[in-house]
Specification:
Blueprint lengths: L5 E7 L2 E6 L5 E2 L20 E2 L9 E3 L15 E6 L7 E10 L4 E9 L5 E3 L6 E3 L2 E2 L1 E7 L7 E5 L9 E7 L6 E9 L10 E6 L4 E4 L50 E3 L16 E4 L16 H13 L4 E6 L7 H21 L7 E5 L12 H7 L2 E7 L4
Parallel strand pairs: 11-16, 18-19, 20-21
Antiparallel strand pairs: 1-2, 3-17, 4-7, 5-6, 6-16, 7-15, 8-14, 8-16, 8-17, 9-10, 12-13, 12-15, 19-22, 20-22
Length: 392
């Protein structure tokens, strides 16, 4: 699907001419909500079983193996497991259009795990609970179940309530007509184990603008290790903090979606902004895991303050973001606190609170999924969005 929007973009001798924006590519998955008749060992309609030969296919949940979690969308969802005999489950399908090399795409899937997934151990033939957290790996290929390039790998999914997870795919090594979703062990691990992951409500895959050149990446990416947390029975576990956190401070030096303000001497200009635009200050950043505003960042905030004083009609949103290293809940809390700290500073300077909104996005909107130290710094950022601005 290639929607094309028409806008008025040029004039000559008083006549306004229309122009066309670049078409945005949308790749719609078949049966993105994994709807089918609930049953164990039954791959959902329109998805192909990519598991190991001789092992049972994934399950259409809820109802099988004591899995009772309600769907996040529709009537059913997909359940996949990893096993203690070094086998795991995966599904795939042929895309309506290929993912093209050196182009960027985004989509979301709701993920969680079930505290109960009762079956038999493949290693011992004894009753076992396949409850350990696993990761989701997303592969591109040119045939069913072909794993040509690893496009994304999540942290271990420990939450037992549905959370939307955001993925940015950047094929580097070729064009891929097929997509494979694979349950896999968290790494490093000494021995294979029994675990599960639940998937529901996948979105359309949308082509997006690549804001920076795509760095070369190896097909195999390893995120920091995570460990499951022991919780009281029936409690929703909080994911453990990842090990091996980079020592570099969190930074907001990434390129913004619309406008970059490289230093405090560069004044924000009304002529470069419009309603809905987002801008970012390169000299506004935080220490790792902190939300206190640093003195070195005050000149950058003064630039925002001056812009708001000079443009009293403007309402902004302060948006906080983190990289993928914290847990989901910790990332959301940290991003909210950072956004609030900036909003409070502006309000404290005299900007009416009705003109300053703030929101934390956690790690749901990364701008670089390459899992390098530089990517961590790029994703850890604060952005400002123009919510309202008059036409004058």
């Amino acid at each position: 699907m290639l929607p094309v929007r028409k806008i008025l973009c040029a004039s000559f001798a008083g006549v306004v001419f229309p122009c066309l924006l670049l078409a945005q590519k949308e790749i719609r998955l078949k049966n993105p909500s994994f709807e089918d008749i609930p049953a164990h060992s039954h791959t959902p309609q329109d998805w192909f079983n990519c598991g190991h030969p001789g092992e049972s296919p994934p399950d259409v949940q809820p109802g099988a193996f004591n899995v009772t979690r309600l769907p996040s969308h529709g009537r059913t969802y997909l359940g996949m497991v990893v096993r203690d005999n070094e086998t795991n489950e995966s599904v795939g399908q042929r895309l309506s259009a290929p993912l093209e090399a050196n182009k960027c795409y985004e989509f979301t899937i709701d993920l969680c795990r079930s505290e109960h997934y009762l079956s038999l151990s493949r290693a011992t033939a004894q009753p076992a609970n396949y409850s350990e957290p696993v990761v989701l790996r997303i592969w591109g290929g040119n045939g069913y179940c072909q794993k040509s390039e690893l496009l994304y790998k999540t942290e271990a999914i420990t939450n037992t309530r549905w959370h939307p997870y955001y993925f940015q795919l950047r094929p580097k090594y070729g064009n891929y007509q097929y997509l494979t979703l694979e349950a896999f062990y968290k790494t490093p691990t000494l021995l294979p184990y029994n675990g599960n992951i639940l998937l529901d409500n996948a979105s359309t895959i949308r082509q997006i603008f690549c804001e920076t050149p795509i760095a070369a990446r190896k097909p195999s990416l390893q995120p920091p290790d995570t460990k499951p947390v022991q919780t009281a029975k029936g409690a929703d576990p909080t994911p453990a903090q990842p090990q091996g956190r980079p020592s570099a401070p969190d930074s907001a030096t990434s390129a913004p979606p619309t406008v970059s303000v490289p230093n405090e001497e560069t004044l924000l200009s009304r002529s470069t902004l419009r309603e809905g635009a987002t801008f970012q200050l390169n000299n506004l950043y935080f220490d790792a895991d902190k939300c206190a505003i640093k003195d070195v960042c005050l000149p950058a905030l003064e630039a925002v303050y001056r812009f708001l004083i000079e443009n009293s009609d403007v309402i902004i949103e302060v948006g906080g973001h983190t990289n993928e290293l914290p847990t989901y809940d910790d990332a959301m809390t940290l991003s909210i606190n950072r956004a609030k700290a900036v909003a409070d500073w502006l309000i404290g300077k005299g900007i009416p609170k009705e003109r300053i909104l703030y929101k934390g996005y956690g790690k749901t909107r990364p701008i670089d999924s390459s899992m390098t130290d530089e990517a961590h710094r790029r994703n850890q950022r604060v952005e400002f969005k123009i919510i309202s601005m008059s036409d004058h």
